[in-house]
What does this fold into?
Amino acid sequence: MTPHTVLPVPEHEALKSGHRGILRGYGRWVLPIALFVIALSLRTLAKHTPAFIEVYYSRTIFPRIGRALALVNGIVSFSLGEILVVGLLAFLITALVYHILQVYQRQKRPLQVLKQAALSLLWALSLGVLSFLLLWGLNYDRQPLSQSLSLTKENPSDEQLERISRAIIDGINANYGASHEGGTQPNMPRAELYALIESAYQTSPLLKEVCRGGYANPKPIHFSGIVSWLGLSGVYMPFTGEANYNRLQPDFDLPYVIAHEKAHQCGIAREDEANFVAFLVCSASTNSFVRYSGYLNALRVVNELNVSAPERYRVVRETLGDGPRADLKARSAFWARFQGPASEVSNRINNSYLRANNVPGGTRSYSEDVALIISYYLQRAR
It folds into this structure.
């Protein structure tokens, strides 16, 4: 048999082949970079067109997306988002161990592994950011809720703030008494609680088309112990459309937390606005325990009186009943058990996430619902 003769490749053909190889190598990076640029451009455009986002995305496209996701996650009672997170962590750990072994066994060079990891990370980042924006994230750029509800933010006088503070404390005391008849803590089935909150969403005259509800039930987080260490009372999963809550926190906070996460579920992205919607929904409920949870979480408004009129604050604060005081101590004791490095890191990540999503105050925005609640009371007084 005659051996094959290998003919030399002309130099210019070798150069062309090398250039094509380089182009093919760089070509793998072009599409994920292009997707990432598209996502950033979409976010930039959305920031400058809040009215457009409000009408065409938040009130038209997103409700259809949310209800489509609800059809999927409503089939099961457990959190698909939680499974997604656990699965992703397991995949990352497995991939890391696999690549370390490949380098250790000299099957791949470290630089080759780093390039593959960087490309995979770029794909995950570009697809993740774009999917996040399209599925839910553009709601951060909708017009302010105060504008949609015609709430004019204004500075109240000390007298007005005192009246509002007394109304909130009266709501706390009255609903605590009504819900704790016989001196016992209500033991409400979760299904009943979900139905009460959903009903309040559906019948709220103020929310109208801004946040109607009608999505899948909220879901308890299986790994609520870990979530507690992270300092989280609830989590909204934008990729699955699920409102998840920490099942270990005190029961009197559950109605408010669930209402807050359901506000995210129906397109209210900003934390202060979700807090305000949760207050509206809970305080308007037909159930005294749900109302109590709403009023108790609006107690931050009373602290504003301490800033402007400390003497008035001391008088008003004394009217808070012993039962609600005990609940506030129980809440503080619960979260104090989980204070540590994990909750601090979680808070920093959440702060960066909020700032990246057009919330300049970061985690401070959680307390900015105070201005909305005050505006709401002032409007009702007119």
